[in-house]
Design goal:
The chain is an alpha+beta fold and about 1000 residues long. The protein is built from 15 helices and 54 strands. About 55% of the residues are buried. This is Alpha-amylase.
């Protein structure tokens, strides 16, 4: 958005990239000659599983394991009784026969179940823990019989490991005494020592030290960046990769936490079909609430207990017309439970017809070029949901018969084959939540974050239908999301302000008559006013009870443009006292590169959330969990720079990973693509010297611990990093080849958020500038191969131009050739394939017709039919769309997508310019899983590549074959917009010649 006011078979090796289930990817432990990778045990007749279940936050009288081996039958209810294992744990060992896993639920035998929110637990073999809904692999009772061993003849070490910044719910110690053998993966379970610390004692025998790595039991490793830790005998602490020998016990002075959180308050339950949405106010605790426990009773299936991480819980797939009762308890890090909340009830209705929820495709996002659409302006599939809004006439849209909400999901579904025919396999769509403002077609004025805007949906073309339709074609959906702000009217379910509105002869046109029972949804027309943009719920002629707005309802002394009397509190404002400080910031941004840019309003239509407040965090986490559950493939994060990195790293990014893992598995979580808009509209590496406001900054975890209070932590982090300055920021080689060699990237410090490449975007007035500026910043991103790269968007063109790119067709072709071969993920704004609206003002608000801007309606160019059976392949096309598909840049992007899709190095490869002469020339390589792809690329100009591997190279553009025997390959200039892609042992020419690639 424009910022302007208007599961492992043996010991993994370093070449394996482990799944980062919570905060990102961490490298697996490195293999050494003295510690070969463990060979998987040969299959036997009977597999077994020992299942440990955490009891502290359940406090049941009895525990049963109800299970079914994979492919087998369930045990009789209530299942097998579990036995005491150690403090806070029970266990049961079961024989699975030849099955390699089991489905499981847990029950107290009296009708209360933990069934993983209705999905059952999917467990493997070996030792498994289930703790508050999280499945891991370890023995939580290891060493518990002798927690503090007395000194003996052997050397001993006591290891304390901190997970304060990792978010792990269990920790394992995988170790090798010097001269000895490694433990079996995942190692031995460590026991909780105190808040954020885990402890384990190890008998080293005669060894004086050991090598060690740590993991969370789910494939996420901390192996000291591939080097493993060397830990001596005695007491050692490991915290954020820092090893302290002869350390003091970090838990010695910490009194046990015995204080329970406060009772969750104001619990509400609202039924919607066969679902119930539960909300409550957050509890407080001396050390912090970590999760909530929701208990449901009612129906014929028995009760259920579910662990949730926010103050919103959606209980789905219930029985029809049944009354359910819910209570909520808060849980802190020590496992203390609050008393149960007051019980609330809700009665379900009938089961509505709805498509099954989707699943994300779960593949590496770098394989998927992105096509970006403003859904409401792309293609109209259903005229009945078109809406113009309050500025329809004034803007001039009415005169063009062009309502701002015109395109919809049905129109997009109908033209997915157009996008696929261009070669794109990911579609970035603008926000889908219900919006509210005078000018909200873009989706960035969120009002009800829990509801899809009905102006985008149709019968048979819901948001779920769109996701499912795209997935059926092998295409991903990236949803634009907003965490920073709501509409100026607030956020339904969190807070909405009441304003002053005398419906006299002056203001009756704007403030609607109150209609009891009528609710704004953007689509339904109020029968009295005839408006779909009804605002009768937002104004009051009498001062509202509990009003906090200063000078409410008094004349300001000013006049509107029409000459009407203006009143205080007539329009939402951050400084009027209208918005509560606990939920919204109460200031305007004064310095765009200052701290206030993260804690104040950036525009009057964008009420700025206090994202460091737990209630706000949980509201947003709960909302976006809904869309994760629907199977979207990733989030584009709007205005990411206006939220402190600490809040992203502590709250929002872990919540995304947690939910995707819970709903769709660790593999899907690894590839759920989150890319943020960190808007730095400058041409330097660091945004005017401020690291906190630079795109690459958001790709990193924190480097130190800050206050447990999120608001204080944000300020501490800001000050600390500003003092560190640009010269003391993390650096990475993840995007770069080591000579000609690809190396496994280190994602152990990755935050979970990739970013839009703002520096390349700002310099795309000329492809060469974009290339050189882009690569200059790549050492400061965690991994620049994931950068989203575009020329222009719905906000700006290059160099912060307010017009859609108008550099000419040849320049567009050159930009595309660079984008599709250089590191990063190429992204195209809708219509750029035909230079749609080139030179037109990108956006002028409601003051001019959309038809005259860069956000004009595109559907006229898509009229007719189009079918595509594969990417970059159009099988048939009729009507106007057939003409559209013949345009030169269309042909160019189709072939670029063909070539990129066929050469893995162009998708996921690291790059280097060492030993290369030529302007936009580079080499790229990707080596993993049996694939070794190496390519030499030059864009527009000639190049000479020296020191490259000898062998046979084939150009993917012309099919030219070169044999390199002396490490050198020279390429003549192919011409502007053209390129050469010489692939070592390549297949040769890909696709057919076009207007530029020939």
């Amino acid at each position: 958005m424009r910022r302007s006011r208007t599961r492992p078979p043996g010991r993994p090796t370093a070449a394996v990239v482990a799944v980062g289930a919570v905060l990102g990817l961490m490298s697996a432990p490195s293999a050494t000659p003295t510690s070969p990778a463990t060979t998987p045990v040969a299959a036997t007749a009977d597999h077994t599983a020992t299942v440990f279940y955490y009891t502290k936050t359940r406090n049941w009288d009895r525990y049963h394991l109800h299970y079914a081996p994979d492919g087998g039958s369930w045990t009789a209810v209530p299942g097998a009784a579990m036995e005491s294992a150690c403090t806070d744990w029970v266990k049961k060992t079961v024989t699975l026969g030849t099955a390699e896993g089991l489905r499981a639920t847990f029950t107290n035998g009296s009708g209360t179940w933990d069934n993983n929110s209705g999905k059952n637990y999917a467990l493997g073999t070996g030792t498994i823990t289930v703790k508050d809904g999280v499945v891991a692999h370890s023995d939580p009772c290891a060493g518990s019989e002798d927690p503090d061993p007395a000194p003996g003849d052997g050397n001993r070490t006591t290891v304390y490991y901190s997970t304060r910044t990792l978010g792990w719910t269990t920790a394992n110690l995988h170790y090798q005494p010097a001269g000895g053998s490694w433990t079996t993966v995942p190692g031995i379970g460590m026991r909780a020592a105190c808040t954020g610390w885990w402890k384990q004692d190890v008998d080293l025998g005669t060894a004086g030290s050991m090598k060690a790595a740590f993991n969370n039991g789910n494939g996420v490793w901390d192996n000291n960046g591939g080097a493993d830790y060397t830990l001596p005998a005695g007491i050692t602490t490991v915290s954020d990769r820092t090893v302290t020998s002869d350390a003091d016990d970090p838990c010695a002075d910490e009194a046990p936490d015995t204080q329970a959180p406060t009772v969750p308050g104001r619990v509400t339950a609202q039924a919607d079909g066969v679902s119930v949405v539960l909300t409550w106010e957050p509890s407080t605790d001396d050390t912090g609430v970590t999760r909530y426990q929701v208990t449901r009773t009612g129906g014929t299936r028995g009760g259920a207990v579910t662990d949730v991480g926010s103050t919103v819980f959606s209980d789905a797939n219930l029985e029809e017309r049944t009354t359910y009762t819910y209570t909520v308890r808060a849980v802190d890090a020590a496992g203390n439970l609050s008393p149960a909340s007051a019980a609330v009830r809700a009665t379900t209705g009938s089961r509505p017809p709805a498509p099954a929820a989707g699943r994300p495709l779960g593949t590496d996002p770098r394989k998927d070029p992105i096509y970006f659409v403003l859904t409401a302006r792309f293609n109209d599939g259903d005229g009945s949901n078109n809406r113009g809004g309050s500025q329809h006439e004034k803007s001039g849209n009415a005169a063009h018969d062009d309502p701002m909400f015109r395109g919809d999901f049905k129109g997009l579904v109908n033209k997915l084959d157009y996008i696929k025919g261009l070669g794109f396999s990911a579609v970035w769509i603008t926000p889908v939540v219900l919006n509210r403002s005078d000018y909200d077609h873009h989706g960035y004025h969120g009002w009800d974050f829990y509801k899809v805007d009905p102006r985008l949906e149709s019968a048979g073309a819901s948001y779920q239908d769109l996701i499912n339709a795209a997935h059926a074609k092998g295409m991903k959906i990236y949803q634009d999301v907003v965490y920073n702000h709501s509409s100026r009217w607030g956020a339904k379910g969190l807070f909405t302000p009441t304003v002053y509105g005398v419906r006299d002869s002056q203001w009756s046109w704007y403030y609607d008559e109150k209609q009891p029972g009528f609710e704004y949804d953007g689509l339904t027309v109020d029968p009295k006013s005839g408006k779909s943009y009804y605002n009768g719920d937002l104004w009051s002629t009498a001062e509202p009870a509990g009003n906090t707005c200063v000078n409410w309802g008094r004349p300001t002394g000013g006049k509107s443009p029409e000459g009407y009397t203006l009143y205080n509190c007539q329009w939402p404002s951050p400084t009027s006292g209208m918005f509560p400080k606990a939920l919204y910031h109460n200031c305007w941004i004064g310095n765009w590169e200052g701290e206030d840019s993260r804690s104040c309003w950036l525009h009057e239509d964008l009420a700025d959330f206090d994202t460091e407040n737990a209630q706000v965090q949980n509201y947003l986490i709960g909302a976006y969990n809904k869309y994760i559950d629907m199977g979207v493939d990733g989030f584009r994060v709007d205005t990411a720079v206006h939220i402190p990195r600490t809040t992203w790293n502590r709250r929002f990014l872990p919540a995304i990973q947690e939910r995707v893992t819970q709903q769709h598995g660790a593999g899907a979580a690894k590839n759920f693509f989150v890319f943020g808009e960190v808007a730095a509209f400058v041409n330097d590496k660091w945004n005017r010297g401020s690291v906190n406001h630079s795109a690459q900054f958001y790709t990193w975890k924190e480097r130190k611990e800050y206050s447990a209070d999120d608001e204080k932590a944000a300020l501490e982090m800001y000050d600390h990093e500003q003092q560190q300055g640009t010269g003391n920021q993390p650096a990475s080689t993840n995007a770069f080849l080591d000579g000609n060699t690809y190396h496994a990237p280190d994602h152990s410090r990755f935050s979970g958020m990739h970013v839009i490449d703002m520096r390349m975007h700002m310099n795309f007035g000329d492809a060469s500038n974009a290339f050189h500026n882009g690569k200059d910043s790549d050492d400061s991103y965690n991994d620049a191969t994931y950068n989203v790269v575009y020329v222009d968007s719905h906000d700006y063109g290059p160099n912060k131009s307010s017009e859609r790119y108008t550099g000419g067709t040849d320049a567009w072709a050159e930009n595309m050739s660079l984008m599709w071969t250089f590191r990063g993920i190429p992204t195209l704004y809708y219509g750029s394939e035909i230079e749609f609206q080139k030179g037109k003002k990108i956006d002028c608000g409601p003051s001019c017709p959309l038809a005259t801007t860069g956000r004009a309606y595109y559907g006229d160019h898509l009229a007719g039919t189009v079918t595509s059976s594969d990417f970059s392949r159009v099988d048939s096309a009729t009507g106007t769309v057939a003409t559209t598909l013949q345009q030169p840049l269309v042909k160019h992007v189709q072939r670029l997508n063909q070539i990129r899709r066929a050469v893995p190095a162009l998708q996921m490869g690291q790059y280097s310019t060492t030993g290369i002469s030529g302007d936009m020339a580079f080499k790229r390589r990707y080596t993993a899983g049996g694939t070794d792809s190496f390519a030499l690329v030059t864009v527009s100009g000639g190049a000479t590549f020296t020191g490259v591997p000898n062998g046979t190279y084939r150009d993917a553009v012309t099919g030219d074959v070169r044999t390199v025997s002396n490490g050198t390959l020279s390429v003549a200039a192919p011409g502007k917009g053209n390129l050469r892609v010489y692939v070592l042992n390549g297949t040769g020419k890909i696709g057919t010649d076009g207007p530029y690639l020939k």
